[in-house]
Amino acid sequence: MRLVRIREVKLLGGYRVELTLTDGRVVERDLGSMLVGSVFADVRNDEARFREMQGARWFGLPAPTCAPMF
Questions:
Q1: Where along the chain do its domains lie?
Q2: Considering only CA atoms, which of 29, 34, 17 is closest in space to residue 43?
Q3: 6/34 Cα distance (integer angstroms)
């Protein structure tokens, strides 16, 4: 089984994102419910901070760590 990674992230509004995956799929996810705990307080309370997202490493983790979202 090949590991699926995030190739591209597009912000859609609110906390929704469109993810292009390395297997060719394009999926939409609402990440709002994942922004739990004090570490995400700034992002959860300020959508402008969320829009600063830069690709799959936004969470400070390599893209494969995000795989359960799919």
A1: 6-54
A2: 34
A3: 17
Three-state SS string across the chain, please?
Answer: CCCCCEEEEEEEECCEEEEEECCCCEEEEECHHHCCCHHHHHHHHCHHHHCCCCHHHHHCCCHHHHHHHC
Q: For 16-65, what is each residue's pLDDT tens digit? A: 989 899 899 999 999 888 888 888 888 888 888 887 765 445 544 444 44
Q: Is-above-0.85 flag for pTM?
A: no
